[in-house]
Amino acid sequence: MTRVACFSIEGLALCNSSDHIPPHFHAEKAGEWEVRVHFLLARDEMFELKWARNHRGPSSSELRKIERAVVPNRDRLLIEWTQKVAGKSP
User: pTM score, two decimals?
Assistant: First the structure.
């Protein structure tokens, strides 16, 4: 997996993934949780928990932080995902 290049969030690893569509990236708080972020979807569908230690997952404030970074960068994320992950031109 390659790192998301168009933005970063302190304390989280953000990585593109080529395992399947729809376009998404993974956000991980080391040793705590990992979510798939389906950045083209609405907030209520954007996050998919992949795993969490103690079944807690990210807090609502952590999800809001990710959402605030994603929404203004959706176009850039799609271009990046297409180029780096799918290997196609936008």
Answer: 0.89
